[in-house]
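Our working data are protein records whose layout never changes between entries. Instead of coordinates, the fold is spelled out as a row of discrete tokens. Here is such a record, shown just as it appears in the course material:
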Amino acid sequence: MKLLPTKYSTYAFSFFMSLLMSCIMSLVVSLLNVGMVDEIILVWLKAWLLSFVIAFPTIVAVTPAVKQLVKLVVEPDHPD
């Protein structure tokens, strides 16, 4: 059972991409900044929340520009 119609696939992609990327990046940056301290989970979760709130709308906003940039640098397939 699918939850969303196809027309929302860009938003679903942006949601999951920003969720995973902000999770990984906030963990890495938190570890680099404060190290493996006792409260690292709390530090990381706060950083993740903030980074996700920024990442999701940013990905939604920049996706059209990124698609255009990709078209400029990727050669289209040629039929054989």
